[in-house]
Fold:
Amino acid sequence: MSAQKNSLVVRLFEFAGSYRILFVLSWILSGLSSVLSIVPFICIWLVVRDLLKVLPDFAQAAEIVKYGWLAGGKLCRCQYCFIFCSIVMLPFSCFSR
Structure:
């Protein structure tokens, strides 16, 4: 099994040619994008947790705005940037011949 997996990786690197660094970088950026895709769900969970903690008086939940901007704004743009960069780099590294 591992010999077959190693031969597959070797074959992929043969396709990459001299652009191996872009090929590896596209893997890394794709992994970072996958990790960052979980963060908005964690932020939503934190908002719900804070709202349930101060249930009768919602004015006390001051952190929910920060979690909302974090989930919807900053991290989503960063994640889409990683997705775009990994998609752009992969064809250059695979079809460079």
